[in-house]
Amino acid sequence: MPTRNESAAALLDGIRSFIEPAQVRTDPDSCLNYGRDWTRLYTPDPLAVVLPSNIEQIQQLVRYANEHRLALVPSGGRTGLSGAAVAHHGEIVVSMERMNRILEFDPTGRSVTCQAGVVTEALQNFARDHGLYYPVDFASRGSSQIGGNIATNAGGIKVVRHGLTRDWVTGLKVVTGRGDLLDLNRGLIKNASGYDLRHLFVGSEGTLGIIVEATLKLTRPLREPSVMVLGVPDLDGVMSLYHVFRNKLELSAFEFFSELALRHVLKKGVQRPFDAETPYYVLIEFENPDESHTDQALALFEHCAEQGWLADGVISQSETQAKELWRLREDISESISEHQPYKNDIAVRISRVPALLAEIDELLAREYPDFEVLWYGHIGDGNLHVNILKPTGLDSATFAQKCGAVSEHLFAVLQRHGGSISAEHGVGLTKKPYLHYTRDETEIGYLRAIKQVFDPNGIMNPGKIFD
Amino acid sequence: MPTRNESAAALLDGIRSFIEPAQVRTDPDSCLNYGRDWTRLYTPDPLAVVLPSNIEQIQQLVRYANEHRLALVPSGGRTGLSGAAVAHHGEIVVSMERMNRILEFDPTGRSVTCQAGVVTEALQNFARDHGLYYPVDFASRGSSQIGGNIATNAGGIKVVRHGLTRDWVTGLKVVTGRGDLLDLNRGLIKNASGYDLRHLFVGSEGTLGIIVEATLKLTRPLREPSVMVLGVPDLDGVMSLYHVFRNKLELSAFEFFSELALRHVLKKGVQRPFDAETPYYVLIEFENPDESHTDQALALFEHCAEQGWLADGVISQSETQAKELWRLREDISESISEHQPYKNDIAVRISRVPALLAEIDELLAREYPDFEVLWYGHIGDGNLHVNILKPTGLDSATFAQKCGAVSEHLFAVLQRHGGSISAEHGVGLTKKPYLHYTRDETEIGYLRAIKQVFDPNGIMNPGKIFD
Questions:
Q1: Is the pLDDT of residue B5 over 70?
Q2: 3-state DSSP call for residue A126?
Q3: Phi, psi for residue B288 in degrees, rounded to 5
Q4: Fewer beta carbons within 10 angstroms: which end of chain B, N or C?
């Protein structure tokens, strides 16, 4: 951890010599807002919030931080769920929000180069306006930023077909913790010229440097996707549906959620999709140009119903209906936020999902008998979100402590199944104590050594991922 | 570079204490065959060839090599074109050919785990036998190995749709240059738990450690692909065809080659695809189940012919015809091998291809007026193979020297266009002098530092990629 011997005021004056003074903020509102992400477990306490407008300012800031041993927290849309963008120890938040321009578009190569502060939805809209599609998508699209998506390798709801953020990054400009500007891979599809540093920065959570620009691939839009929601009696049925539908249709999403999760969305005024109540639901999206695959989908539905794998279902007849059905899944996270859920975001190989679910179900029923546990997630990626709601009246600290204690058991189960303690939310602060369940001590030793290469003074987002 | 103070015999006896003596070979035939790849520029001179049968032996070997400062050259099918698998300075070749078993298959997760020595075609056949498809494909499929494919991030003829080897690796077991066994990512689709070391090993050309096992995704087979070959008057036409066909059909390949390249294949007895001779040809492959897209393809053909972008063409009517058409492109490399071609394998962003081609064409006509220069490659990936044939009578050394001199000019042009000196062949020995045209000195400094993390004694494939 960096230490400081100079007065805060003098340090900030130094920064104001190369960044516009108005963009070096210390007011309480800025410190509160820019000092936190979507976790609410930490008390924001940055020294200042700095909003650079160009790469040179960022390089100057990183060099200055090295000289004065100041800690920097790179900051995007702050929609993360692991505390990776939290500044709670007098760090300087480096907000990328002023660097939000799309710089270049290549229609033949289907790619776009943009600054790190571009909001996900702005990029999606830009692509759509040019007849193309940026398929990395998730509920926080309206405020998350491309740089943050890359720093956490964001996944979301289209991974089963389109992969993670990593799969769309063909170029990355980064300022390392040493202050060097690296122009990595420069938008090339093929480049076999030594170790690919780009992929080290994807998922590095701001601990190696600051992502300042990215070149991203785009693809053609989905062709008239249809959405089905199916009511499923048990988790084995969910897996059977995945196997059958994935083999016969070109799926762009395969999501699941529990009845308990659905009820929170219904409370917000969304309609139940059909009369039957089942413990689980599956949402399937597939391309269906000119309704050419509707018959196939209905035949699969009949087959699965005969097998007892589903109890009821509905298929969208229009884009509006498709959007309504998506809300059943997409609105879960927001609908439960008032209950301050303790979130686990775990992943295993798909073949391990049923065994893992059975073991965790048993564990949670034993350990959390009084807590409401909600399941949802991306079965097609082996990714499950386990949300435990805070009971009214229980104080946050006790709740967090109880949940943390059970996490140890949960992650021990996960470890036996070769899983990951964080599928797509990152490690940050919340999952740091559990990293060793997924990466062994030898591996973590290599992670530390790589951090040392890019950030020898430990100024970049210290205390995140590992100490 | 490691140095040795002990006698070779004593060193090899030491290795024979943990690897079966018959698998530690020093006979001239083994040294010759295992000491080289498909380049023929270097005189093989390994100390020995070692063929381990399990991971423990490899770990023991790496630890032994560290103690005695022995250099190790990991060795797959040795089909590489950059000399990365060459042992010409008394190294120990570590052949993976005895570790060639498929270990696990997961039909629901569509993935397979195999040892590094599995031959590409064996994996492709395994996938096909299970109704699936491993889409990384190239002419040397019959002898290249999965470990080597990963170590070079092999590309090939299906990248435009299916990406590179990197995109299919979900897990990697490696023995690092320190002798540690790392079990990286373990087949997970999603895993946001710190830096992804897996991607450092992809494309590392044996310089960080030895890849011993991999988990690879599989996908569904292509649905009745059709192949078109089109005769194109100029390179602008090639680009126009790419734009038009890619927007309307789901392409699985978009290859190009020159008339000069085609003639070498025709000499081997393959039929010319149609009467017209044009300077360039394009091969397009697209899914065409029940010939549902034939009309679309023919309409595009008509449109492009009207625009003057193509002069003639043919579409396959059967799988056999499709295979015959593929030979026109796939057989080029083998048909010219007797001319000891000097190979350049370059890449730029697709939008830069026309400008780059024009400049290089002019450069080569000026600098190589007496040499036969053949073009072919993967336009959809911005990847061009430039092959210069050795004139009969010119000695190899003079030829190589002349070609190397022009490479400096060629790579200077490439650098201005932000390109790569090696798209898919790797750096190895042949491209090492030119690495700085693609990676700047700052970046190369980071590459060296990362090498130091994984291989502090420099025993892993020393002298490859950089010194």
A1: no
A2: helix
A3: -145, 60
A4: C
Cβ contact, residue pair B111, A204, below 8 Å: no
B115 and B88 within one domain: no
Q: Do A435 and B349 touch (CB under 8 A)?
A: no
Question: How many residues are listed for chain B in this entry?
Answer: 467
Residue where a domain stops, chosen among B217, B248, B276: B217
The answer on A238 and A149 residing in a single domain is no
Question: Which one of B170, B195, B196 makes the best mutation probe of the A interface by having the most chain A beta carbons within 10 Å?
Answer: B195
Q: CATH number of the domain that B45 lies in? A: 3.30.43.10
Tokens representing B356 are 């780059």
CATH of residue B124's domain is 3.30.465.10
Q: What is the CATH number of the domain that holds B379?
A: 3.30.70.2740
> What's the domain count of chain A?
4
Residue A393 distance to chain B (closest CA, Å):
33
B304 and B369 share one domain? no
Query: B454: nearest CA in chain A?
Result: A446
Residue of B nearest to A167 (CA): B167
Q: How far apart are CA A327 and CA A305, in angstroms?
A: 24
B452: which 2 tokens?
């130091």
Residue with the two structure tokens 């269906």 = A288
Domain that holds residue B286: 225-333
Of the pLDDT bands very low, low, confident and very high (cuts 50, 70, 90), residue B437 is very high
Examine residue A187 and state whether it is found in any structural domain, yes or no: yes
Contact: A348, B188; criterion CB under 8 Å: yes
Residue A3 lies in a domain: no
User: If you measure CA to CA, which chain B residue comes closest to A354?
Assistant: B108
Q: Are residues A274 and A365 in the same domain?
A: no
Residues of B in contact with A346 (CB under 8 A): none
Kindly report, residue by residue over B308-367, the tens digit of the pLDDT.
999 999 999 999 999 999 999 999 999 998 998 999 999 999 989 989 988 998 999 998
Give the one of A163, A164, A188 whose C-beta lies nearest to B349's C-beta.
Answer: A188
**CB contacts, 8 Å: B176 with chain A:** 446
Residues of A in Cβ contact (< 8 Å) with B191? 347, 420, 422-423, 438
Q: Is residue B410 part of a domain?
A: yes
B261 and B210: one domain?
no
B109/A152 CB distance under 8 A: no
Q: Which amino acid is at B127?
A: A
- Ramachandran region, residue B60 (left: φ > 0; alpha: ψ -120 to 50; beta: rest): alpha
Q: What is the CATH number for A292?
A: 3.30.70.2190
pLDDT of B186 higher than 70: yes
Q: Find the angle CA(A141)-CA(A145)-CA(A149) to the nearest 5 degrees.
A: 85
Short-list A188, A217, A103, A206, CA closest to A150: A206
Sequence length of chain A is 467
Of A163, A188, A378, the CB nearest to B347: A188
Of B91, B99, B110, B5, the residue nearest B52 (C-alpha) = B99
* Distance from the B271 Cα atom to the nearest Cα atom in chain A, whole angstroms: 32
Q: Is the dihedral of CA B153, B157, B160, B162 positive or negative?
A: negative
In angstroms, what separates the C-alpha of A392 from chain B's closest C-alpha?
32
| Chain A residue closest in CA terms to B347 | A190
Are residue A291 and residue A205 in the same domain, yes or no? no
Say yes or no: B290 and B207 in one domain: no
Across the interface, of B189, B247, B422, the residue whose CB is closest to A159 is B189
Domain membership of residue B449 (yes or no) is no
**A59 lies in the same domain as A152:** no
**Residue linked to tokens 């892993």:** B460
Domain boundary among the residues A98, A131, A148 is at A98
B199, B378, B435 ranked by CB distance to A199: nearest: B199
Check B348 against A465: CB less than 8 A apart: no
